[in-house]
Amino acid sequence: MADPRAVEAPEVLGALGVACESVRQACDDTLLELARRRVAMLLNNDAELQAKAWGEISERQNAELSSWPTSDAFDERQKAALALAEQFVIDVTGVLAGPLAASFGALGAEIGPFVQALYLLDVGQRVDLVLSTLSGETISSESWAWGATGEIPADPMVAIMAMLAAVGRLQAVDPITKELVRLRGARLHECRRCLSVRSVAALNAGADDDLLGADDPSSTGTLAAATTAALDLVDATFVGPPTINQELFGRLTQSYGSSELVELVSYMMRNACNKIPVAFGVDDAIVEEGFEYQVIDASGETVTVDASALRN
C-alpha cells in the first residue's frame, strides 16, 4: 500500500497522522469508528472497510450500520453522530439547517472535534480513492492516520492547521490553476468567505476577475488542457463518490507528473477544510465589498494582505 505522498509530500503525510491522532484523543473512539465505516460506505470505499479500526463497535452495529436510523443497536448519541456524518459527506451545506442542532445536543463540547474528525475522514477518504486511481495503488487511512510522532496537540484544529501549512509549502503547480481549483471547491461547498477571497499569486500571474469569478472558467476564453483537467478532477473528487474515468485519467497523467498530481490532490484537501466552517455556518466573508486578498507565505500559512501586494 504505497501512498505517493510518502515520496512526494512526506511532511503532509506526517502532519495528517498527527491530526488524526489528535482527533482520536479528543473524541469517543466508537463514534469515530462508526463514522469512518459509514463514510466508507457512502463513498463506495471498499479498501477503507478493510483498514485498521479507529475504535470498537459491536458486530451487530457493523452489520446494521447501513440501516442505523431504524436499528436499536445504536443509542441516540450514536445516531446523532451518524446523522451528522452522513449530511457532512453528502451535502455539507445542509448541516446547519439539518442535523447540527440535534448533534450538538447529543455531543455537547465534543461537537467541534467530531466535525474536525469528519473532515479528515470524509476528505481523507476521497483523496485516497483519487490517489488510488492515479497511482495504481490501494490506499486507505492506514497509510496516513497512524504512526504519528512528536507532540500531539490537544486541540485538533491546531494539528489540522499544521497539515494545511504543510500542503501550502508545495509549490510546483502554477498559481492560476491552483486558484481556479480552490474556487471550484468553494462553489461546490458554498463557502462564502472562500468565494470572497482572491489569490495575490494568481492575480500577479495574469488572472483577472472575469476568469476567477466565472462559474465556468472556460466560458471566458480558452483554458489550458492541464487546467481544465484539474477542474474536472475537483468535480470528480467532491461531486458524489469519487470517480475518475479513463478519459480523465489520461488527461491528468498527460498534463501532470507525480509530484504535481500529489500537490493538486493535497491542495484540494487543504481547500476542503472549508467544510468545517460551512457546517457550523461560520463561513461569512470578512469584507463587505470587493475582495479579501491572500498570499501563502514561505511557511505555508495563508495570510491576508492589502491590495498593495498586487503588481497591477
Features:
312 residues, mainly alpha, AhpD-like, 3-stranded mixed β-sheet, 3 strands
Describe the structure.
There is one protein chain. The protein is mainly alpha-helical and 312 residues long. It has two domains: 5-167, no CATH class; 172-309, AhpD-like. Helices cover 57% and strands 4% of the residues. It has 17 helices and three strands. Strands 1-2-3 form a three-stranded mixed sheet. The longest helix is centred in the middle third of the chain and has 25 residues, at 111-135. 46% of the residues are buried. The model has no long low-confidence stretch (mean pLDDT 96).
SSE topology:
Elements: H1 5-8, H2 10-26, H3 29-42, H4 46-49, H5 59-63, H6 76-90, H7 100-107, H8 111-135, H9 156-168, H10 175-189, H11 192-195, E1 197-199, H12 200-204, H13 209-212, H14 225-238, H15 246-255, H16 258-271, H17 275-280, E2 292-296, E3 302-305
Parallel strand pairs: 1-2
Antiparallel strand pairs: 2-3
Helix pairs in contact: 2-8, 2-9, 3-6, 3-8, 6-7, 6-8, 8-16, 9-16, 10-14, 10-16, 14-15
Query: Count of helices?
Result: 17
Major sheet: arrangement of strands? 1-2-3
Helical content class: 55-70%
Q: What is the CA–CA distance across the termini?
A: 47 Å
The helix/strand class is mainly alpha
Write down the overall mean pLDDT.
Answer: 96
Uncertain regions: pLDDT < 50 for 5+ in a row? none
Q: How many strands, which pairing sense, and closed or not: the largest β-sheet?
A: 3 strands, mixed
